[in-house]
Write a structure and sequence with these properties.
two-stranded antiparallel sheet, Antitermination protein, single chain, alpha+beta, extended, HSP_DnaJ_Cys-rich_dom_sf, transcription, Antitermntn, Antitermination_sf
Length: 253
């Protein structure tokens, strides 16, 4: 059993009435066995399990806990980066919290994710300036006014999909050149998203927020020293999830 198989155990299921006998094999896992395995996995790899649960929207508490544990990891290893080691204690703690939050958000993102529409700021509509005719002092005049119109970027939803605009989340696109040469549909890795199927969280956003708290970090310092550390935090989330998945497979097989 892997981590993805445990998601269904966290949501309510309707009662299924059937005349088929339940599995009686000694190798089959009962609900109690699964819950015990999940508890064991959570005790051995708390961060990896919490990170996965938060990514799957199973628990908001696990999402908060994952960010906290990632912040602790960042504080423990940030002194290896000279630019971060020189920061004041309070500023360093705040910077690590920001980096951990953005790194975890990038880890959780997928082709099915949505993000707030920048055009309408999540409202679903925009304010448009118009001219209206009104009677003022006995005469008709054009007066400036405003009206609410639906956002054309998100179609009033307030959110937009994170899926790649070229491959629509598939991670593959059609190679038109080879298709003309061979006469068959030839697929290639999408160049825009590099096969991920979605757009990553821009690292420049994390830099912009960190720069508000400390002017000591320039864009050159960010790209040269801090950006690799930021990528390390994202990889740590994936590494912890893989470790939790390995532990769960080991205890259930």
């Amino acid at each position: 059993m892997n981590l993805e198989s445990t998601v269904k155990y966290h949501f309510a299921k309707s009662t299924s009435i059937s005349d088929s006998p339940r599995a009686t094999s000694p190798d089959s896992l009962t609900g109690t066995d699964v819950m015990g395995a999940i508890g064991y996995c959570q005790s051995k790899e708390s961060f990896g399990f919490s990170a996965f649960s938060g990514k799957m929207e199973i628990s908001q508490n696990d999402k908060v806990r994952a960010v906290q544990l990632l912040t602790q990891y960042a504080l423990k290893h940030c002194d290896k980066v000279a630019a971060l080691r020189k920061l004041d204690g309070k500023v360093k703690a705040k910077a690590m919290q920001i980096l951990a939050k953005f790194a975890y958000e990038d880890y959780c993102r997928s082709a099915a994710s949505v993000t707030e529409c920048k055009c309408c700021r999540g409202k679903g509509f925009k304010t448009k300036a118009i001219k209206v005719r009104k009677v003022v002092e006995g005469s008709i005049r054009l007066v400036d006014d405003t009206e609410q119109v639906m956002c054309d970027k998100c179609n009033g939803k307030g959110v937009i999909s994170c899926a790649c605009n070229d491959c629509k989340g598939r991670g593959e696109s059609i190679d038109l050149v080879k298709m003309k040469e061979t006469g068959e549909v030839v697929k290639k890795t999408c160049k825009r998203c590099c096969g991920r199927g979605y757009e990553r969280v821009p690292a420049s956003k994390a830099f912009a927020v960190v720069a508000r708290y400390t002017p000591d970090i320039s864009i050159a310092t960010w790209k040269k020293n801090i950006k690799p550390f930021y990528d390390l935090l994202i990889n740590e989330c994936e590494k912890a999830e893989n470790n939790a998945d390995y532990i769960l497979k080991k205890v259930t097989n």
